[in-house]
Write a structure and sequence with these properties.
The protein contains two helices and three strands.
Length: about 90
């Protein structure tokens, strides 16, 4: 039984690594906004160098259809996001 559990653990770790490192194939036709634990909600959020920080900022942003919000992989975000129709959400 322990061999089966080890196999499952190995497969799980492999899959988690694939999820963390695979690029999203998203079609964002307007502005892309970035969110990172190292960001600041005073930033414009429009680049990896000037990301927003909080889910509240994302939830309250006046986004337009075609915009996208990308969360930094491996960062931990706690709480809820109020999603908006026509907005693409993903990871970078």
């Amino acid at each position: 039984m322990s061999n089966i559990l080890k196999e499952i653990d190995n497969l799980t770790e492999k899959r988690k690594n694939e999820i963390r490192t695979t690029k999203d194939c998203l079609k964002i036709t307007r502005t892309t906004y970035y969110v990172s634990n190292n960001g600041n909600d005073e930033n414009d959020g429009k680049s990896e160098n000037t990301p927003w920080k909080t889910l509240d900022k994302v939830s309250n942003a006046k986004l337009k259809p075609g915009d996208g919000v990308l969360f930094k992989r491996d960062d931990l975000f706690r709480g809820n996001v109020k999603t908006q129709p026509g907005i693409t959400y993903g990871a970078y």
